[in-house]
Amino acid sequence: MTTPIPCAPISPLRQRLIEDMTLRRFSRETQRNYIRDVGRFAAFLGRSPDTATAEDVRQFQLEQRESGVPVPTMNSIVSALRFFFTHTIDRPDLARKLMRISHPRQLPMVLSREEVARLLNATTCLKHQAALSVAYGAGLRVAEVSALKVRDIDSERMLIRVERGKGGRSRNAMLSPDLLTLLRQWWAFGRQQGVMHRDGWLFPGQHTMKPISTRQLHRIVVEAAQAAEIAKRVGPHTLRHSFATHLLEDGVDIRVIQVLLGHSKLENTALYTKVATRTVRTVVSPLDRLALFKVEETEPNG
Asked: How far apart are CA 133 and CA 137, in angstroms?
């Protein structure tokens, strides 16, 4: 008989970090990332991270820079360590030693409306089409799509309740009539297959007691884009970018889009003004209004 291998116990410090994040209703993905990043710092130290000094923090950031760690990754680690130092071990003095690195934000990749239609039609099953339609039709992040439950769909108020989005914030997302129709089709089919339950996940994974994973959703988007012969680099967040950009092109106020996306800062939403090409094309140049170069129509002879 094989003796089961006991799971390694969680250290009191790590347990305290988990409790602090749970108390603030951090998402599972955020908790996983923070634990990983604090673990990186502990591996660099070679000892418990609660024994760190200001010089340790400085040397750690220098080592990351010299190792070629990407700037977004370095800034994510800063966020994790700031939380750990400030809330878990009550060392805000160490948190102040961490420096975020500014870097130019790349413009988001956006699909045209025709490309979105091709991608959604290229999905291989109703569940995949419904999941990607939620990402585009409501502008949800991939982790938010994964975490949706059946009860989060409010057909009376035409809203999708997003529980514990990024930063632990909850919000209401829009639920369009066409999206509701598609979700009802998926609900009826899922019930027939025995994978949908009123208190269950909206998009169950291979095991119905667990939701579809963000990794699987990413794979679904990539495969649908390939099938639709879309040459652009596409991921789940591309659908969210396209949602925001298309709303902006349709004349929806940017502050309304900010609320729908769950952005805490308007500057994050304003980034989409740089890729809203349809909006740019509708603007009349002041040069055109001068009519200096207007071609005169010649009258036909006779």
From this structure: 5
